[in-house]
Amino acid sequence: MKKVIYLAIFSMLVGCSSKAKFGNLTTDNISVDPKVLEVKGGEVTATIKGTFPHKFFPKDGELEVTPVLISGGKTVKGDKVIFFGEQIAKPGLMIVSNKEGGTFSEKQSFPYTSDMRMSQLYAEVRYKRGNESFRSIPRIKLADGVITTPMLVDVSEASMVSREFFGASEGGIETGTIQYVVGKSELRESELSKPEIQKLLNDIKSSGRKSYIQITSAASPEGAEGLNSNLAKHRDAEASEYVAAEMRKFNVNLPIKHTLIDEDWDGLYANIAASNMKDKDQMIKEMKAEGSIDKRQVILHKYMASNGLFEASLLPPLRRSNITLHIVNDEKVRAAHATIKSKTEREISKLSLDDRLAVTEQMLDPDEKIQSYRAIIVHYPNDWRAYNNAATVHMYQKNWNDASTMIDRSIKVQDRAENRYNQGFVHLAKGNIKDAKTCFSKASASTSPEWQNAKGANEIFNGEYAKAVATYGDKVCNNAALAQILNKDYSKAKSTLSKIEVPNATTYYLKAVLGARTSDKDMVYSNLKEVLSRDKAFGQSAKSDIEFAKYMQDAQFTSMLN
């Protein structure tokens, strides 16, 4: 926890100053920011600023201040802060001059839990002079309640789906390959200037909106397993940033899909089979027969030591990032909706994996989507996308446990930005703030079309409201409006909320919060009524929401929520 000095309590020492011989300090000397506590980034924080007047602090005095947050019968103590008079000066102590006084500005952070909405913040104070015993005064209340509005992030909007393009498997394809030095992931100018890469960039520049880019990054299999995994990830990151930067130059924004191959054994077998080496069939058979990666590498290194062809021409092509532009077949796209309506489950199973994912993602019935994703998983258990996408359906339905199970399975197959962020938002919805922060810290930026939604939601969670407003831009959704409310752009938030075509309980709750912040009583009550009709449990949370503090004694408010 960070240190805090809640010295607003010093104004209460006036009554005991004759005993302690501390001088008087009034609330005119103290400021607290924010005036009402607020959760940001899973923490409840406050900054106290103020001044010790001259002649206030005895030269042999000692003062202890401990902030205490009490919520739901639970007491959480912050770090004790100790001040000393100048006669007790020792290295590292917080010394206050009797003659000059001084200024202070300190912080304290408490890990947020859901019961802090109706909490109270106190300060415990002890003081003494010289060899006297410490004396205490009663706890001093500093604040009531915590604003938890940032926790209203609409998780269903923030979830990240792996979207596929129906008919992409039959569309046009353009490919370029970037190769790397062994053990390295840095891009080389000699690779970027190759004709195939330049042609690919020109094709991307002129591509239509129904296109997407697939980047497959790999490492050759002779290195250590952990090293190979990191190399594949770093090569993917380098290639992705390069392509994204080029697209920004062209004012083009195509989705980028990623595949990582930590150790490209299949590529090595193919290269050996295509070579003119003697005993190549025996080499492949011997390596394939060994189930242990470590033992298989021992066999590979044995052949590498006796045949320079491996390092000369068989392994280098495997150290690569293949960049593929998929141009979607427009005719297939136009037929997609008809296919969704007419295909039976048996017929859908005949489609390619990507087309099955595309068709399933466009289904309207959540239960049918879940069934379709489960059928895909049966046939493709080692593809992360169906697990992840099924989880987003559960997130929409607020089935957090089922969502968590699917996301965990997706991450086990392949750790991606999409499933990591989804895992974080599920933890957030379940109130597991620490776990949510861990997931967000492990996730990387993504080129997924849903990345902006997840990024903006994460910025709200972290208290970066202006950034979130900029991230959402003119997008119309609950989370965009939430960012605007928290950034105190109430006019824009009202406009955004009014444009949401299919409002849900969160939409109406945000309208009620906006009404409370703009002192529009009718707006508060009419929208809370809508919330209760859609999600009674969610509506009941208004009882303990400090946003509605000035209405909590109102008969209409209490009768509505009881």
Describe the structure.
It contains 25 helices and 14 strands. It is α+β, with helices and mostly antiparallel strands. The protein has 3 domains: 141 residues, Sandwich (Immunoglobulin-like); 148 residues, Tetratricopeptide repeat domain (Serine Threonine Protein Phosphatase 5, Tetratricopeptide repeat); 156 residues, 60s Ribosomal Protein L30, Chain: A (2-Layer Sandwich), CATH 3.30.1330.60. β1 and β2 form a beta hairpin. α20 runs parallel beside α22. The N terminus is likely disordered.
What are the main properties of this structure?
Immunoglobulin-like, single chain, 19% strand, 562 residues, four-stranded mixed beta sheet, disordered N terminus, six-stranded mixed beta sheet, 45% helix, Serine Threonine Protein Phosphatase 5, Tetratricopeptide repeat, globular, 60s Ribosomal Protein L30, Chain: A, alpha+beta, 3 domains
Biggest sheet descriptor: 6 strands, mixed
* Silhouette: globular
Tell me the distance between the termini: 38 Å
Number of helices, counting only DSSP H or I runs of 4 residues or more: 25
> Roughly what fraction of the amino acids lie in strands?
15-25%
Report the mean per-residue pLDDT as an integer.
Answer: 83
When the domains are counted, the total is: 3
- The helical percent reads 40-55%
How many beta-strand runs? 14
Classified by CATH, the class of the largest domain is Alpha Beta
